Amino acid sequence: MTSLLDVRELHVTYRAGHGEVPAVRGVDLSLDPGGTLGLAGESGSGKSTVALALLRLLPESARIGGQVLLEGENVLDMRWGRLRAVRWVGAAIVFQGAMHSLNPVKRIGDQIAEPMAIHGTVPANRIPGRVAELLGQVGLPASRTRDYPHQLSGGQRQRVMIAMALACEPRLVIADEATTALDVMIQAQILALLKRLVAEQGIGMLMISHDLSVLAATCDRVAVMYAGRVVEQGPAREVVHEPAHPYASALSAAFPRIGDPASRLAPRGLPGDPPDPADPPPGCVFRPRCAVAETVCATVDPPLWPVDPDPAGNSARHAACVHVGPARPLTTARDGGTP
Ligand SMILES: Nc1ncnc2c1ncn2[C@@H]1O[C@H](COP(=O)(O)OP(=O)(O)OP(=O)(O)O)[C@@H](O)[C@H]1O
Q1: C-alpha separations of 241 from 53, 137, 177, 257, 321 in Å
Q2: Domain ranges of the chain
Q3: 225: Cβ contacts below 8 Å, ≥ 6 apart
Q4: Where does the UniProt entry say this protein principally localizes (predicted)?
Q5: What does the angle CA 239 – CA 242 – CA 246 come to, to the nearest 5 degrees?
Q6: Which residue ranges have their beta carbon within 6 Å of ligand 1?
Q7: Integer Rg of the chain from CA
Q8: Which end is more exposed in the chain, N or C (fewer Cβ atoms within 10 Å of the end residue's Cβ)?
Q9: Phi, psi of 23 (to 5 degrees)
Q10: 222, 239 contact by CB (below 8 A)
Q11: Residue identifier of the C-alpha nearest atom 6 of ligand 1
Q12: How is residue 223 annotated by DSSP?
């Protein structure tokens, strides 16, 4: 089966006034049709840069390398015409903060209709009916079609963004912190809605959040990013509830579970700060904040090793930590050591 999305060795570097910022450093991700993959990590770990790179929405200051295969076709090699055709239809993005993404002077029905009109996915005379249907799918009455964004609550506006993203029936939806700005109850409703819609319509979803509990509630698989790299990935339940990488473990402990009364409390946050992406420490980049770091971690930058591999060496889960890999790698893996 061809993957819906196959990201291989993705690198993104921003040119900034003070030099270069390597925001994404060799990320591999894979998503099957209809699957749900969560991408977690603290602010600045590179999640949004990955999301934007998938549809080449990065600013001009960004240099991208690697491959982004969407249904086998490399997005990074597409001509502009092909890329425009793929956006909304092949893959659509729902961003955080619908108030800023929606046009304040345009009725929401017209905004939901726009991608369908531009891409010609629905005949013009059927668009109003499809808008009403999409509003129904996201739990809004068709009567709201003539409303302007300011007449809707934050949660309702986010539902409109989801309706827009679904309008052209994309095979992939990328939800970047799509529920972060909402209160806990509305957040849970929108997550349940997204989960139901992707399951019913067989859409693949890449969901980005700094909050692992959000991803645990929504996704089959989770990848955790730290300083531009994936440090652990595997089945959501295992990565979130029995993390193998010390960073995934710290991130998991930092957020109360969804549905837990304590979830109304502010997250505790992780001690210490992420490294300066322009000047990461040698060895494992998480070492300065790691509670279980050893001397070897100052020199070894571990690749993703299988966690609990079967006798054939296969594993559904991988983590980039010397405590996970075979006995003790003696060379810097990226300098030639083998996992
Ligand atoms: N346009 C830009 N120019 C220069 N550096 C940038 C730019 N956008 C992001 N960065 C830097 O790239 C790194 C990754 O940022 P990114 O926004 O992808 O992380 P994130 O995990 O999505 O964080 P957040 O949740 O805060 O958006 C950070 O160090 C950030 O400062």
Answers
A1: 29, 32, 21, 10, 17
A2: 31-59+75-245
A3: 27, 39, 40, 41, 45, 46, 47, 50, 231
A4: membrane
A5: 80
A6: 14, 16, 21, 23, 41, 43-49, 59, 61, 210, 277
A7: 21
A8: N
A9: -80, -30
A10: yes
A11: 14
A12: E
Virtual CA dihedral for 155, 181, 34, 215, nearest 10 degrees?
-130
Residue 339's pLDDT band (cuts 50, 70, 90): very low
Q: Which CATH superfamily is 31-59+75-245 part of?
A: P-loop containing nucleotide triphosphate hydrolases (3.40.50.300)
Tell me: the pLDDT tens digits for 194-228? 888 888 888 999 999 988 888 998 899 999 999 99
Say which residue the tokens 């502009």 belong to.
Answer: 80
CA of 9 to the centre of ligand 1 (A): 18
Question: Which pLDDT score, from 0 to 100, does residue 73 have?
Answer: 96
Point out the ligand 1 atom lying closest to the alpha carbon of residue 59. Answer: 1
Burial of 53 (0-12, 13-18, 19+ CB in 10 A): buried
d(CA 317, CA 162): 30
Structure tokens at 112: 């939901």
Distance 241 CA to ligand 1 centre (A): 27
Query: How far does residue 22's CA lie from ligand 1's centre (Å)?
Result: 10
Ligand 1, atom 7: closest residue by C-alpha: 14
Distance (Å) from CA 45 to ligand 1 centroid: 7
Token match 């089945």: residue? 235
Determine the length of the chain: 339
